[in-house]
Write a structure and sequence with these properties.
Number of helices: 5
Radius of gyration: 23 Å
Shape: elongated
Helix content: 25-40%
Structural class: alpha+beta
Strand content: over 45%
Largest sheet: 14 strands, antiparallel
Length: 242
């Protein structure tokens, strides 16, 4: 349900961005005060629609909390009596593995302690990290979510040591698809990602209640961006990549 809600929330934001762009063009083409006032009323209603999506954001946060609870107990489960008969320890050049091994390959549940201090706990398949798992990086970052062929792939949450976090899609080890980045300042970006950076449509929610909508290219704002201020005012800026 959380994944469905997240997609609905992103789709709503993209639709609102398209509507607001069209409304702004109408305001430029007319001096009729009544029409302008009605457009402002519509914008206020759209702001309320966005605010009503708070429940969806709470669902996403609940997903994060559930993943935390599930993975925090993973090491204990692996070492419990249910797995004792299958637990083996094997040393590699880059670290030590403790978990299930089938046909001399890591398969099932296991923990890998890397020589550099990084630790992975979770699923393995055919000697590769694959399935659900959590990795504690030696720089203080932490990733929880889906893996494929030893790389982050699918849905996941990446917690950064500076207090920020990313929740959303991963592909080939990097952020790609739809995702939300929560800055340690209280701002957040919701929208498209490609090859680890912002690219496509997105919305920035500022901690003062403002929100900015527009397109991104190579992590930079590009083209027309519409800012809806907390007081209902709307401004437009055009950005170019130098």
């Amino acid at each position: 349900m959380s994944n469905i809600n997240e997609q609905i929330y992103v789709n709503n934001n993209n639709l609102l961005l398209e509507i607001i762009n069209k409304l702004e063009n109408i305001m430029k083409d007319t001096n009729d005060k009544l029409i302008i006032q009605r457009i402002k009323d519509i914008i206020i209603i759209m702001n309320k629609v966005i605010n009503n999506c708070n429940q969806i954001r709470k669902d996403i946060q609940n997903l994060s909390n559930n993943m935390n609870q599930r993975f925090n107990n993973l090491e204990l489960n692996i070492k419990s009596n249910n797995f004792n008969s299958n637990i083996q320890i094997k040393t590699y050049d880059n670290g030590k593995y403790e978990g299930q091994i089938i046909n001399n390959k890591r398969e099932g549940k296991g923990i890998f302690y890397y020589n550099d201090g990084t630790k992975y706990e979770g699923d393995w398949k055919n000697d590769f990290i694959e399935g659900k798992g959590i990795v504690f990086l030696n720089n203080g970052d932490r990733y929880e979510g889906d893996w494929k062929n030893g790389k982050r792939e699918g849905k996941g949450i990446l917690y950064y040591h500076d207090g920020g976090r990313y929740e959303g899609d991963f592909k080939n080890g990097v952020r790609e698809g739809k995702g939300i980045y929560y800055y340690n300042t209280g701002n957040r970006y919701e929208g498209d990602w490609k090859n680890g950076i912002k690219e496509g449509k997105g919305i920035v929610y500022y901690n003062n209640g403002d929100r900015e909508m527009g397109n991104y290219l190579q992590n930079h704002r590009v083209g027309k961006h519409v800012t809806l201020k907390a007081n209902g005012e709307m401004t437009t800026n055009t950005h170019f990549i130098k």
